Amino acid sequence: MYQTTYHRPTSLAEAARLFSEAGDAAYVSGGHTLIPAMKLRLSAAANLIDLRHVGELKGISVTADEVAIGAGMTHAEVAGAAEVKGAIPALAGLAGSIGDAQVRHLGTIGGSVANNDPAADYPSAVLALAGTVETDRRAIAADDYFVGLYETALEEGEIVTRVRFRVPEAAGYAKFRNPASRYPMAGVFVARHGDGSVRVAVTGAGNSGVFRAAEMERALAADFSADALKGIALDPADMMGDIHGSAEYRAHLVTVMARRAVQNLGQALAFV
User: Fold this and answer.
1) CATH number of the domain within which 33 lies
2) Is residue 100 located within the same domain as residue 31?
3) Are 186 and 270 in contact (CB under 8 A)?
4) 214-271 residue pLDDT tens
5) Does residue 51 sit in the same domain as residue 118?
6) Would you say residue 35 has pLDDT above 80?
7) How far apart, in Å, are the Cα atoms of 104 and each of 57, 99, 229?
8) Are residues 39 and 81 in the same domain?
9) Cβ-contact 202, 210 below 8 angstroms
10) Contact assessment for residue 271 and residue 176, using Cβ atoms and an 8 Å cutoff
């Protein structure tokens, strides 16, 4: 790596001030996207502003309609929270399926959503659960937030403070993991909402990052069962292809994972 200056603010105001004053700065929380990128010299921030000690980014609150999770909450904290398990068990299960124990105790939901890594788990839940990403400046609906690979609607210096999820009638998540990295090669979060709508979000497979599968949503809105997805095939031209799997293989995985997500509502299943 190369020389960087580490900053440890304890408030949002201090973090924002450091960002504006330091120059060539980047926020870091769990660091599971940024730090590897720095090691590979794909990123070269001269100032790292660590958000892990900002108390304003902590906490979980639940109402009848919504689960709100502070951006600084770790995957392990989300997975173990009784409030999340009770309101959206598939979301707690997703958090508990991320990486390994070391990753889950350091990585945060805010870091995952802010970086929008194409193989991250949380973006699929944010999209499928009609979530809202709150920042220190505004609130952004999920459909407007995710822009492309590693791209979001966040502006320069904007900090994700909280993520709100709509409580669904039913939801499930299933993913096929790369056995080495444990990142999903295809992950699908399915949610049926009280207004009768169904949202299906796919991560790990698309050329443009996380996306909604419209044909699957229409089929499940008419018949919320795994059988409704029979015969639906995604276009491989829209899928990612690499040394771990071809575009055709990922297109097939998406359909398989979507069916398994519906078959196992209330859970998050991980396959290798």
Assistant:
1) 3.30.43.10
2) no
3) no
4) 999 999 999 999 999 999 999 999 999 999 999 999 999 999 999 999 999 999 889 8
5) no
6) no
7) 17, 7, 32
8) no
9) yes
10) yes
Amino acid at 83: E
- Here the tokens at position 190 are 């399915």
Q: How much is the pLDDT for 43?
A: 67
Query: Among 233, 223, 151, 238, which residue's Cα sits nearest to residue 192?
Result: 223
Buried b (16+ CB within 10 A) or exposed e, 193-218: beeeebbbbbbbbbeebbbbbeebbe
User: 49 exposed, middle or buried (CB, 10 Å; 0-12, 13-18, 19+)?
Assistant: buried
pLDDT digits (tens, 9 = 90+) for 75-97: 999 999 999 999 999 999 999 99
Per DSSP, which regions of the chain are E strands?
5-7, 25-28, 47-50, 60-62, 66-70, 132-135, 139-141, 146-148, 151-152, 160-166, 170-177, 184-192, 198-203, 211-212, 268-271
Tokens read off for 198: 């169904």
Whether residue 133 sits in one domain with residue 39:
no
125, 90: one domain: yes
Question: Count of CB atoms within 10 A of residue 233's CB?
Answer: 12
Q: Are residues 48 and 75 in the same domain?
A: no
96 and 42 inside one domain:
no
Pairwise CA distance, residues 8 & 155, whole Å: 21
